[in-house]
Design a protein that fits this description.
CATH superfamily of the largest domain in chain A: Cyclophilin-like
Oligomer: heterodimer
Structural class of chain A: alpha+beta
Strand order of the largest sheet of chain A: 5-13-6-7-10-9-12
CATH class of the largest domain in chain A: Mainly Beta
Radius of gyration of chain A: 19 Å
CATH topology of the largest domain in chain A: Cyclophilin
Strand content of chain A: 25-35%
Distance between the termini of chain A: 45 Å
Structural class of chain B: alpha+beta
Number of strands of chain A: 13
Strand order of the largest sheet of chain B: 13-20-17-18-15-14-21
Largest interface: A-B, 44 and 41 residues
CATH architecture of the largest domain in chain A: Beta Barrel
Shape of chain B: elongated
Order of helices and strands of chain B: EEHEEEEEEEEEEEHEEEEEEEHEHE
Number of helices of chain B: 4
Shape of chain A: elongated
Number of strands of chain B: 22
Distance between the termini of chain B: 28 Å
């Protein structure tokens, strides 16, 4: 539950849901996120610029020209949490993955003393919940991975990870939407485009609170996807 | 012919289209971006008579050299910038900031350098003809988002305006420059992660703006701050103006193009009223921080806003 509201500078408020990171808490964060965005769209609260959910916090920034910390706090305090719902906003995605594009499976297999097939099966059978999207456009932080697959970040991050790479660290799984530097353990690659700079309405495929299940595809299917 | 076209003969440094920023997409990982110095952006539009906040051209240190190859337009340069206007007969005039100029086909504008500041702005009457993405024409080069396919404006590019000049009059504003090197802040969410000695040090020492300063962030150099709790926090949403302190104890101020989430403790946040002043500080400048409270920060914002409105109201026609 929402523990407290604090100011961040003069034009943002953090809604703090406590220290723990789990789906129940993140669900509450996302509920409030959808609620604030809806109320802002309806014109019931003015001046909201951004709502950024993370594992256990929601950061709301606003335009000092139109509102202030007191107005936004009052609005948040009046939200009736019990009545908030976001099922209607939630999407369940099936995302193709080709494990032939792994980079780290060999090492992971040695580290965890599990064979590759087993690692892939555990990953395929997980239903991932999107805790947050960020750092770079369209980049999802998803969980929770089976504890059998818990790993640390790479000691030395890679300078370049190909776009679409799927990585794991601790209980989290990510997908790199763009070629970028990265320190996650790469187990495969998806041909699905997570971010489209030409789409004006919904540039990011995924939204916080959605779920993702992976579907294994062959190299040939991967290439067909890319060429479509 | 309904609009005018410039050809880029020199691109300048980090020359991009920017407006107020792209809002409502932080939860998708899209940084706000937008003009660094908001006040100059507002003036740039107002001086050429734009009622709307059209996208402008932002440059850093050195601006572009542009030749008007078609049409006629009205331009203004905002900020603190040296520039020249060269007309068809090769007559050159030294440009004055914060006033408008009428340019005709064949005229060039050579934006030489910013003076004791980083960012300058060029506006045109009626705005530039550029495509918006997610309600904004701000360019985020890092993610290739925005006009010009998300790229910087470069040599040989064509810059098109929405319209040819409609108003033949020129205008100017009087802006008194702010030079203070004291930047006012509010305590940050992890203020108490730092030792008592470090808290005192943060507000008493001079910080040097380092060369590692760009649209994403400003790195500062000073005596190291000591974090007594944890040098990492769980990743959370971040906002521009936050002063984060990574494990090395040297603050980084997050600026307009900063990522959407981050995991370093934040000792303080720049107040909105002082943000424009801060971003114009060139590397090597010594700055210091002063702690104020929320109420004062809000009042300072109102004062600044009223001051800007007053300056715009006082825009004068040049005879």
């Amino acid at each position: 539950m929402l523990k407290k509201l604090n100011n961040i500078g003069d034009s943002a408020i953090v809604c703090d849901f406590g220290e723990e990171v789990n789906q129940t808490i993140n669900n509450e964060v996302i509920k409030l996120f959808h609620y604030v965005r809806k109320q802002a769209a309806l014109g019931n609260i003015e001046g909201i610029l951004n709502c950024a959910p993370s594992y256990n916090k929601l950061i709301i920034s606003f335009d000092l020209e139109k509102t202030n910390s007191k107005n936004v706090s009052n609005f948040l305090n009046s939200a009736k949490f019990k009545n908030l719902n976001f099922i209607e906003d939630k999407k369940n995605w099936i995302i193709p993955i080709c494990y032939d594009f792994e980079i780290d499976l060999e090492n992971i297999s040695k580290q965890l003393k599990l064979d590759k097939e087993e690692i892939i099966n555990i990953h395929l059978n997980s239903i991932f919940f999107i805790y947050m999207i960020g750092f770079v456009p369209g980049h999802p932080f998803m969980g929770d991975l089976d504890p059998k697959l818990f790993l640390n970040r790479l000691k030395t991050p890679r300078v370049k990870v190909p776009a679409g790479s799927v990585g794991i660290v601790e209980k989290f799984c990510n997908i790199y939407p763009h070629e970028s530097p990265g320190g996650w353990n790469i187990i495969g690659r998806t041909p699905t485009k997570l971010f489209n700079t030409k789409d004006n309405v919904k540039p990011s495929l995924l939204t916080p609170g959605d779920t993702v299940k992976f579907k294994s595809i062959s190299k040939k299917e991967f290439n067909n996807f890319i060429n479509d | 012919m309904t609009n005018s076209i410039f050809k880029v003969l020199r691109s300048g440094i980090n020359t991009t289209y920017q407006d107020e920023g792209r809002f409502g997409a932080q939860h998708l990982g899209i940084p706000t971006s937008g003009c660094m110095d908001h006040k100059s952006f507002i003036f740039a539009n107002a001086i050429v008579g734009n009622k709307k906040k059209y996208g402008v051209i932002e440059f850093a240190y050195q601006g572009p050299l542009l030749k008007l190859i078609k049409g006629k337009t009205k331009i203004a340069i905002a900020g603190n910038v040296h520039f020249k206007i060269i007309n068809l007969n090769n007559d050159t005039i030294n440009g004055e900031c914060n006033r408008s100029y009428n340019l005709n086909e064949g005229d060039s504008i050579d934006i030489l350098a910013t003076d004791k500041s980083i960012y300058g702005y060029m506006s045109v009457e009626g705005g530039f003809k550029i495509k918006s993405f997610f309600h904004s024409v701000s360019t985020l080069v890092k993610a290739r988002i925005g006009p010009n396919n998300g790229n910087k404006i470069s040599l040989e590019d064509k810059i098109t305006t929405n319209q040819n000049r409609k108003n033949e009059n020129n205008f100017k504003v009087n802006i008194s420059s702010e030079n203070s090197n004291t930047i006012r802040v509010l305590k940050g969410p992890q203020y108490d992660f730092f030792s008592e000695k470090s808290k005192k040090l943060f507000f008493s020492q001079l910080y040097k703006v380092s060369n590692l300063t760009d649209r994403m962030g400003m790195r500062l150099e000073g005596q190291t701050l000591e974090n007594i709790i944890n040098t990492n926090i769980r990743s959370e949403g971040i906002t521009k103006g936050a002063i984060q302190v990574p494990a090395d104890g040297q603050p980084i101020i997050l600026l307009t193009d900063c990522p959407t989430i981050g995991g370093y403790p934040k000792i303080a946040n720049i107040i909105t009223a002082d943000y424009d002043l801060l971003v114009q500080k060139i590397p090597g400048t010594n700055i210091s921080f002063k702690c104020i409270d929320l109420e004062e920060a809000e009042q300072l914002y109102k004062k600044k806003r009223n001051n800007i409105s007053k300056i715009i109201k006082d825009i004068k026609k040049i005879n």
